[in-house]
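Input.
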Amino acid sequence: DCCKNIFMSGKGNKGIKSVNVDDIKEVITVAYDSEKVSLEEIEAAIAMAGFDANDRKADPEAYQKLDGCCKKP
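Output.
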């Protein structure tokens, strides 16, 4: 999935064990090592990749650069 690859290639991937993207529910689930990365760092990385992360909104510039398949309909 291209959206998963965008996130996994970003700066926030240290300590990330797995990422699951549910396109239907529009949910990203991340398993991570809390000793290597915090929830806040993961949320920031997701937002900087162009996606909303919990209460943190997507970076508008990054969102515009996403492929059409990764944008909200």
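The helical segments are 2-8, 39-48, 60-65.
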